[in-house]
């Protein structure tokens, strides 16, 4: 046991001074620090849309504020004439344009929808029905509760006839949402706020997301751990060929083989664990469990390789081929296995695939 501990200590020192090992450790730490300092960004299509709102009611002002601040694939901005709307759309400064006529909100509340929003698009406009849906949704949210109040509240309770405060209006909105089909069906079915509006069921929320620049740090860590285990295997085969372990028994030689691989795995595995914790790759307990399993698999793989290639000369001839195949099939930078089941089966023979 003393021999094994001594060799483990010696191998740790030998491993830590190797240039390749130092570069792997430094690369992992540098990538992790860089990744942590990359800001999250909103990845969006960010399509501009122009609005000319001629209505000057309070509801109209609320609509302007809400739609200009909302998060969607469209960015809405306002102009002050119909000519500006047309010019912006024709010049492709805006993808789509809307004109809201004067008195529009009051007309809607009275269910007089002959005065409609005008929409301008061109053949190059992207997702115009999505813009229509966003605008309609916001108009509906502003107008619908007051339609409910104006045309249906009198038959329910005289309570609703008085001016509503903020909390009562919120309660009214909730009541309306629960009964939207029954209450507002006439407005939805018989008319529309848009000229030539089309029903749109596009799920545009998937087009906007908060994300972060991807760096394959976990896969790189898996590759480095695998390379480190091969370095330990090579060190053992080198010492064996120098007849350093000639007087050791077969059992001791096998344990020494494991101690070399373990000494190479420990520093890189610990560094990888800390780096992956730093970038919050996954839950710490899950990460620890996966790291232990992966290190055990890599260690076993290296032991098997060292038993099959029981010569340092043969090992060094096979090593470049093994590393290239690992890069290609284990999905370190690009997972081609997800496109082909045969390649995916080949990938199972390379440990980084499992991490």
UniProtKB/TrEMBL annotation:
Secretion signal span: none
Domain ABC-2 type transporter transmembrane: 23-355
Membrane topology value: Multi-pass membrane protein
This protein's UniProt keywords: Cell membrane, Membrane, Transmembrane, Transmembrane helix
Transmembrane segments: 20-38, 220-238, 258-279, 291-308, 314-334
Domain of life: Bacteria
One Pfam short name: ABC2_membrane_3
Subcellular location: Cell membrane
Primary residence: membrane
InterPro entries cross-referenced by the UniProt entry: ABC-2_transporter_component, ABC2_TM
A single GO cellular-component term on record: plasma membrane
GO molecular function: ABC-type transporter activity
The protein's name in its UniProt record: ABC-2 family transporter protein
Protein source organism: Eubacterium ruminantium
Lineage: Bacteria, Bacillati, Bacillota, Clostridia, Eubacteriales
């Amino acid at each position: 046991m003393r021999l094994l501990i001594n060799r483990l200590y010696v191998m740790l020192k030998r491993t830590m001074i190797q240039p390749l090992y130092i570069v792997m450790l430094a690369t992992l730490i540098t990538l992790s620090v860089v990744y942590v300092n990359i800001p999250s960004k909103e990845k969006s299509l960010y399509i501009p849309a122009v609005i000319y709102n001629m209505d000057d009611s309070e509801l109209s002002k609320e609509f302007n504020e809400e739609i200009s601040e909302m998060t969607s694939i469209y960015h809405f901005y306002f102009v002050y004439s119909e000519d500006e709307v047309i010019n912006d759309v024709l010049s492709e400064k805006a993808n789509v344009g809307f004109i809201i006529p004067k008195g529009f909100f009051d007309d809607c509340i009275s269910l007089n929808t002959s005065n409609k929003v005008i929409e301008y698009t061109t053949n190059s406009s992207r997702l115009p029905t999505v813009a229509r849906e966003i605008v309609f949704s916001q108009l509906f949210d502003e107008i619908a509760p007051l339609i409910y109040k104006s045309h249906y509240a009198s038959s329910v309770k005289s309570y609703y006839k008085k001016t509503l405060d903020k909390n009562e209006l919120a309660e009214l909105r909730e009541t309306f949402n629960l009964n939207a089909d029954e209450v507002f069906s006439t407005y939805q079915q018989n008319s529309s706020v848009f000229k030539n509006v089309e029903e749109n069921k596009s799920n545009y929320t998937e087009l906007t997301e908060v994300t972060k620049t991807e760096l394959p740090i976990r896969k790189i860590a898996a590759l480095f751990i695998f390379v480190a285990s091969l370095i330990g295997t090579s060190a053992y085969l080198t010492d064996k060929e120098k007849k350093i372990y000639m007087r050791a028994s077969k059992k001791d030689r096998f344990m020494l083989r494991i101690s070399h691989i373990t000494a190479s795995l420990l520093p890189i595995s610990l560094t990888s664990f800390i780096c992956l914790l730093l970038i919050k790759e996954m839950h710490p307990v899950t990460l620890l469990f996966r790291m232990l399993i992966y290190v055990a698999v890599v260690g076993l793989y290296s032991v098997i390789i060292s038993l099959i290639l029981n010569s340092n000369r043969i090992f060094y001839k096979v090593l470049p081929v093994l590393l290239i195949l690992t890069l290609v099939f284990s999905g370190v930078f690009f997972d081609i296995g997800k496109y082909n089941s045969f390649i995916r089966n080949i990938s199972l023979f390379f440990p980084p695939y499992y991490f």
